[in-house]
Amino acid sequence: MIKTLPDPAPITRFLRAKASSHLLVVAVHHFGLFEVLHRSPMTRSELAEILQLTERPAMVLFPALCAMGMLHVDAEEKLHLTELGTLLTATHPHNLLGYVGLEKEDPGVLELTQWLRHDGPPEAATGLSYVMDADAPSPMDDPAAARYFTLALAGRARYLAPLVAGHLPRHTGHLLDVAGGTGFYTYEWLRLNPTAQATLFDRPEVLRVAQELLSEFSNSGRDGAANVRERVTFLAGDMLTDPLPPTDLLLAASLFHDWPTATCQALAAKFAQVLRPGGELWVHDTFLDDSLDGPLAATDYSAMLFMGTKGRLYSRAEHRAWLTQAGLVTNHDTLPTGMDYGLLYARKAR
Ligand SMILES: C[S@@+](CC[C@H](N)C(=O)[O-])C[C@H]1O[C@@H](n2cnc3c(N)ncnc32)[C@H](O)[C@@H]1O
Predict the structure, then answer these.
(1) Residue 295 burial by CB count (10 A; 0-12/13-18/19+): exposed, middle or buried?
(2) Which of 67, 76, 159, 229 is deepest in the core (most CB within 10 A)?
């Protein structure tokens, strides 16, 4: 049935398209970015310093403006205005500053400006979804909010999980699905691997919802679905601080994009440690291009994540750097799944 469905990517692209609009207005009218670059091309870090942006906001804003065709990156890694971008500078006789300025007081634009300046909400960690750490109470630990946010991901997981499971190795061993949410990625993989075992690791309130969804999955009548239940262990915990069980395969689906770079590095190292020799760490996510200038679907998604979590989207090269630092062996395979998502993986030496 899944194969006959259209890829829902256009829906999520339109859903997130407001991010481009808001980022453009912020850059033009609240940060003066186009005037700065009009005076002189410069590297990302030089521009971030002038605009007083830290790494995460800069890595949301600059790739987005490149993806929109307003900036480009030269061979020396300097950002320039494109010819289109110069239409947003005051000295251009045909500039559109007044027209774009009609949106500068839009509440979404003002909120994004504030978040980019603070690298997050002005009051620490309030309003963040999908993350649980020591900074503030998490909605993922509130029964109603955990149910709401987990079920919000169910449609995406139902579509993508069979595609992900089809790419993951066939195995008789153990899969650890960290921050597994609904559990659909685990259930679909176990269906294809009839003697394997899996652990779904997440917050306790999320796992309550995942157990209900497993009942639905087990009773679906699909081939191999009925005996999945007896091969899943639900393990509640905090992936940042609690020990994780040893495993042959580890799946990190839509996980790294919720966290800042330093946390991603620490998690990659922790995940690598629990892999058995020859084990594999699989990442399922949307990736920025390694050139950090698109694609637009990714830069819009990255801005939406910036406004809701502690993370952003990262490039494959950024992921591979963490995995290599963690002692794993990476490769250059790119495995698209759907909805602008893809897989990458790294192996632990035997
Ligand atoms: C964006 S969702 C991804 C869920 C699932 N992997 C998917 O792709 O549908 C992030 C998940 O991370 C979980 N999470 C956040 N902080 C966590 C923590 N400290 N320990 C364990 N899980 C955590 C959340 O409860 C949520 O289910």
Answers:
(1) middle
(2) 67
Residue nearest to atom 12 of ligand 1 (CA): 179
Q: Position 3: which residue type?
A: K
For residue range 217-268, what is the model confidence (pLDDT) as tens digits? 999 999 999 999 999 999 999 999 999 999 999 999 999 999 999 999 999 9
pTM exceeding the 0.95 threshold for the entire prediction: yes
Q: How many angstroms does the Cα of residue 132 sit away from the middle of ligand 1?
A: 8
What is the structure's pLDDT at 297? 98
- Biggest CA-to-CA distance, the chain: 70
Q: What is the interface pTM, i.e. ipTM, of the complex?
A: 0.99
In angstroms, rounded to a whole number, what is the distance separating the alpha carbons of residues 229 and 232? 6
Chain-centre distance for alpha carbon 282: 14
Q: What is the pLDDT of residues 25-34, one digit of tens each?
A: 999 999 999 9
**pLDDT for the residue 137:** 85
- The residues annotated with a catalytic role in the active site are 257
Residue 199's DSSP bridge partners are 176, 233
- Which DSSP state fits 26? I
Q: Which of 12, 258, 312, 343 to mutate to test the pocket of ligand 1 (most atoms within 8 A of CB)?
A: 258
Which helix (H) or strand (E) element contains residue 144? helix 143-152
Architecture of the domain spanning 2-118: Orthogonal Bundle (1.10)
Average pLDDT, the chain: 96
Q: How many CB atoms lie within 10 A of CB 38?
A: 18
CATH 3.40.50.150 fits 139-347, yes or no: yes
Instruction: Decide: 253 in ligand 1 pocket, CB within 6 A.
Output: yes
309 Cα nearest atom in ligand 1: 1
